[in-house]
């Protein structure tokens, strides 16, 4: 094993034009969420849950702060990993979190279809689409940060 320190490649710095495109996608997902009536606190719950599943420390730190700024409670953030075991999340949040988990984990088709059907039934197509884009975008940013080894400061 080498004693040479490992130097990481920050993908956002190595290919800023690609990162700009990812940021533009994120902005579009946020605009879709806003148009669908999903507030920032709701979106940050999705971002946090996706980041928990992916184990992205950088994004967990960032979106924890964003969620608090958006009015989310520390209590709900503390139990977010076990959201389905509590009564702290309403029906819209529950189906959105289930959909985000399904998009992130890509379970068997039957389980995915169930999460999609439930989310569409409760949220409607516009909010369903917005939640899906938020989760897809967060997954992309998790992978950028994990691969880049972005430090939590």
Automatic annotation (TrEMBL):
<dbReference type="InterPro" id="IPR029032">
    <property type="entry name" value="AhpD-like"/>
</dbReference>
<keyword id="KW-0575">Peroxidase</keyword>
<protein>
    <submittedName>
        <fullName>AhpD family alkylhydroperoxidase</fullName>
    </submittedName>
</protein>
<feature type="domain" description="Carboxymuconolactone decarboxylase-like">
    <location>
        <begin position="16"/>
        <end position="101"/>
    </location>
</feature>
<dbReference type="InterPro" id="IPR004675">
    <property type="entry name" value="AhpD_core"/>
</dbReference>
<dbReference type="Pfam" id="PF02627">
    <property type="entry name" value="CMD"/>
</dbReference>
<dbReference type="InterPro" id="IPR003779">
    <property type="entry name" value="CMD-like"/>
</dbReference>
<dbReference type="GO" id="GO:0051920">
    <property type="term" value="F:peroxiredoxin activity"/>
</dbReference>
<keyword id="KW-0560">Oxidoreductase</keyword>
């Amino acid at each position: 094993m080498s004693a040479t320190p490992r130097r990481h490649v920050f993908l956002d710095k190595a290919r800023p034009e690609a990162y700009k495109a990812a940021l533009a996608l994120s902005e579009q997902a946020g605009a879709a969420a806003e148009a669908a009536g999903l507030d920032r606190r709701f979106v940050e719950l999705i971002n946090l849950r996706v980041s928990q599943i992916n184990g992205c420390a950088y994004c967990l730190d960032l979106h924890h702060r964003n969620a608090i700024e958006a009015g989310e409670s520390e209590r709900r953030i503390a139990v977010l990993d076990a959201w389905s075991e509590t009564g702290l999340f309403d029906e819209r949040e529950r189906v959105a979190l289930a959909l985000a988990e399904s998009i992130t984990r890509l379970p068997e088709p039957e389980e995915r279809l169930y999460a999609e059907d439930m989310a569409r039934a409760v949220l409607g197509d516009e909010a369903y689409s917005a939640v899906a884009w938020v989760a897809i975008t967060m997954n992309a940013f998790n992978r950028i940060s994990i691969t880049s080894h972005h430090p939590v400061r």
